[in-house]
Amino acid sequence: MEKILQVKDLHVSFTTYGGVVQAVRGVSFDLHRGETLAIVGESGCGKSVTSQSIMRLIPEPPGKIKSGQIFLKGMDLIQLKEPELRKIRGANISMIFQDPMTALNPTITIGEQIMEGILQHKNISREQAKKAALEMLHLVGISNPEIRLKQYPHQFSGGMRQRIVIAMALVCQPDVLIADEPTTALDVTIQAQILELFRDIQKKTGVSIILITHDLGVVAQVADRIAVMYAGRIVEIGTRREIFYQPQHPYTKGLLQSVPRLDVEGAELVPIPGTPPDLFSPPKGCAFAARCPYAMEVCEKVYPFETSLSHHHYVNCWLQDVRAKALVSSNH
Amino acid sequence: MKSYLIKRLIAMIITLWLIITGTFFLMHSVPGSPFNEERTTNEAIQKNLEAYYQLDKPLFVQYVNYLKSLVQFDLGPSIKKSSQTVNDLLGRGFPVSFELGLYTLILAIISGITLGVLAALRHNGIIDYLAMTIAVLGISIPNFVMATLLIQQLAVNIPIFPVATWASPKHMVLPILALATGPMAIIARLTRTSMLEVLTQDYIKTAKAKGLSPVKIVFKHALRNALLPVVTVLGSLAASILTGTFVIEKIFAIPGMGKYFVDSINNRDYPVIMGTTVFYSAILIVMLFLVDLAYGLLDPRIKLHKKEAK
Ligand SMILES: Nc1ncnc2c1ncn2[C@@H]1O[C@H](COP(=O)(O)OP(=O)(O)O)[C@@H](O)[C@H]1O
Ligand code: SF4
Ligand SMILES: [Mg+2]
What is the CATH number of domain A3-92+212-331? Predict the structure, then answer.
């Protein structure tokens, strides 16, 4: 499968009064054409920082991309300067933020807000841009687009606004769409509609989606693959089936147990005890060790290597290390 | 829209009427009369004069008569400047004051906004500190002190500009500068604060994520929203500029309304006091109305009226 985006060993930190926050500490993943990759993890684990690094929208200072590479069509985005990045933002990679109530400019018509993106990147007339905007509104399921185009954000509901934000992000037909918690601010029925819309537009446009969320319910509905993040690192990545049915990292298992399940009656909600580590001075070894019921001595000292469990399924946990497995089987 | 305008008009008239009534009775409650200090007038002449200006009638009758002539846009005769009506005085003095006030307002708005935006864009940079130092000075130095400073520096020490009067554009520079610094400083600070806040908004992030240039982001997405709070203070700034003109006109010997107004208060020249107050109040009330209209135009969320919803 074609790799549209490759993130390699990304390190991002923020210099604050309290010290240096190591927000992202070596994140790597590939994004394939036409797939939806979900990045899940508790709040503060570095999901937004990762996605904003891809857009190169980390505020510098206080933030800084310490090292790593982000390849889009063979270009390393980390090496690009602002003017080149501006050509990529919105055109090749688009981003949707969490709160549709604040993501739109209150004093500009939504038509103008959709059109300005395409006018920025493509050499077309306003008439053509308007046509493209109308098509987009139609695509995201907004009726009466001609009239809606002239209206202001406050004239739309939250769900409608998120549709407009999506239309805005897609108007230049980008290769990659990053959606950072796109449904968190919406109520449940609207959430489902927006997720449905993501699936629909992906089918129609073939856009690759990075879906960031802390909600595994959202993930179950739309993700092809899932990356689980903890304390600035991806600790497990695999297909949706693999993550949901054969989770191997204790943190992934904990996350799954803390999700309400409709299919298993009377299933108990078990939140993971403890809190994530302080990212000012993250632990040397496995960051989950303090909360992990299986933690061993080695876990605190050395960060576990990545173990491949299948073609798609990778995990960073000493329990899955080949040597540990060999030890277990030789003991039997 | 029509019903909004009508409602607004009625409210404006009521406001004006309240101001007229308040000023009228307050003015007469202050001890003294137009003829007090003129020792030369004997009792009989004073009686005649009072009768002529209707000052011998009961206060309420005077009040009603004043309102009556007011609705015919007649502000009455000046007591001190006999043979001149208040309308004459206003007709002569106001155009000059208006020029002074208008240029001041324009200068304050343009320079204040520019300074504020630059400061916000270079937040915590040298320009920011410089702009805010200017702003603090501008706010804390009263305009009459500023006027004296300007005259001393730019007319006496280094004679670039004339010391006083209102004869040519060159004459206008110092009084306008003196009067504009305060409002400019207020606008600059407000613009900066508001701009800084707007720049952290999500829709600015969205605009960046679209690949828009910094210039577009600032002018198209940030500035308009940042100016909304600035527009709301324009009304009160206009008021302070208005009162400022009285002082500045006095210092620079500018033949505007200021001189007549200050004299009229000292002399208890009732019709002039009333006329100037009424006229300036009317202007302010209209200004506030225009500011509201402008706000409605700038911010689509503010509905002054129901747009023809199709
Ligand atoms: N602008 C910033 N300044 C300082 N620290 C930041 C900044 N942005 C993010 N961080 C830190 O980076 C870490 C990861 O944040 P984030 O990526 O937003 O988490 P989430 O997974 O909830 O999206 C957090 O510990 C946060 O405190
Ligand atoms: S490496 Fe050790 S502490 Fe970390 S998750 Fe695996 S078993 Fe738990
Ligand atoms: Mg986040």
Answer: 3.40.50.300
